[in-house]
Write a structure and sequence with these properties.
Helices cover 17% and strands 24% of the residues. With 166 residues, it is an alpha/beta fold. It has one domain. An eight-stranded mixed sheet has the order 3-1-2-4-5-6-7-8, with helices on one face. Helix 2 (74-86) links the parallel strand 4 and strand 5. The chain starts with a strand and ends in a 7-residue tail after the last strand. It binds iron/sulfur cluster.
């Protein structure tokens, strides 16, 4: 289950997009130095489709919806991403995990025999950020960061982290 702790309209998390950021609780990553300790607990109501639709009705001008968290339930993240797509908004996922779920990505060997990757779960997203917060390395705006921000094209990940360094 995904729980919505709070939300915000943001402009920097996804370059060139006006984004409705859905901040989810029950984060399992527990990064030392976490800037959002309140997201470790199971706070907030379940993030359901009616809740999403209500927010999109209140903020119809958003061009993108960012799912911030949800590492406790990637299957529900995927379902929510599909729903956001149906609402004609771009979809971003900010994951604090080190890597995406193994069965979401296409190996080089599979890529050779599956030229059309539209059926990959990644095809449900436009942008994906991965990586826990490591205080010594900094967040996306630091050139030393361990985190990566990808644009998703045809189910494949294009590293765009540099966009945050300008
Ligand atoms: S992923 Fe984000 S919210 Fe979760 S523990 Fe790490 S910094 Fe905190």
């Amino acid at each position: 289950m995904l729980r919505l702790a709070d939300f915000d309209i943001v402009f920097q998390e996804v370059p060139n997009e006006t984004t409705l950021a859905l901040n989810l609780s029950e984060c399992p990553n527990h990064c030392p130095g976490c800037h959002s300790l309140h997201l470790w607990e199971a706070t907030g109501d379940p993030l359901t489709i009616p809740v999403l639709d209500d927010l999109l009705e209140r903020y119809p001008y958003v061009t993108c919806v960012a799912i911030m968290g949800g590492d406790n339930d990637p299957a529900s993240v995927l379902q929510m991403a599909q729903t956001i797509r149906q609402r004609h908004r771009k979809v971003a996922w900010y994951s604090g995990a080190n890597a995406l779920p193994a069965d979401w990505t296409i190996t080089a060997a599979e890529e050779a025999i599956v030229p059309n990757s539209d059926e990959s779960p990644l095809a449900c997203f436009d942008f994906i950020k991965v990586g826990p917060y490591v205080e010594a390395l900094g967040g996306l705006k630091c050139r030393t960061t361990n985190q990566r921000f990808y644009r998703v094209e045809n189910g494949r990940l294009i590293d765009c982290t540099e966009q945050f360094w300008h």
